[in-house]
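Writing this down once: the sequence line spells out the residues, with the fold written below as integer tokens. This is how one looks:
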Amino acid sequence: MNYFQMWNEIKVFSPDIFIRFDERLAKHTFIQTGGIADIYIKPETVEEVQHITRIAFTKKIPLTILGYGTNVIIRDRQIRGVVMNLSNLNKIEVMKDVITASSGSSIIDVSNAALEHHLSGLEFACGIPGSVGGAVLMNAGAYGGEISFVLTSVKVLSLSGDIHILDKSELQFGYRSSLIQRGKYIVLEATFQLENGDQDQIQSIMNKNTIARESKQPLEYPSCGSVFKRPSNHFAGKLISECGLQGYQVGGAQVSVKHAGFIVNVDDATSTDYLILIRHIQKTVKKKFNIVLETEVVII
């Protein structure tokens, strides 16, 4: 299918939708790197997401889903097909001790909504800079908490455009992993079961987590968050540091001198810089400790 034909089909369905040809994706990632999308679309409704997904599925056009672009590295080359950014789907609803949030909602905003309504359970997420959809996909976690601890169900869209409700038990959650990572579903909405709590105590925990994050993480530079998963009985950052790699740099990408588990963009880095540096870190740690570091960051 010609991309101009797809453009026309989408515009007929939704005349005001944000859609661009040859969009530079570096504008849409935290590390400010990434190639060019053939078509870049920001739908505002579930119906638009469903329509775009069905066109892509029927016409066998590659479809890539993007949220806030936080824990992701998009390669420098052309990204074929459609990149669909769901950040405009950002509705958050609170009903008693249950929060339902659209996939494009900021997980930080959901955490703050919980605080506002005296609900406990999402304090750990107060500093995670990503979307609800990304948090579910990665089973995001921090400070002893994980999304899987409080999630009850998700509304998802299959690649053929059908909507399903999946219970937590069906999502196959693991450490920084879920069924969603296999690419068969698109998260539309997540429901969280929380507990009534004392607002001052909830705020205190969030403040403590924020101080810990600001003191340990290199927030002064663009980064993609924790690059590697935590190896069994080890910490990735400690292993990298003990290899003498803090400050090691490829192009504009540098192993953070503040926290070795982060790679920061200190000088107009490219995604290729990041990927070469990641491979060097993995090779060095494997040689010194015989430990394989698996990437936590999603590479597109």
Summary: DSSP finds eight helices and 18 strands in the chain. The domain at 92-215 is CATH 3.30.465.10 (Uridine Diphospho-n-acetylenolpyruvylglucosamine Reductase; domain 3).
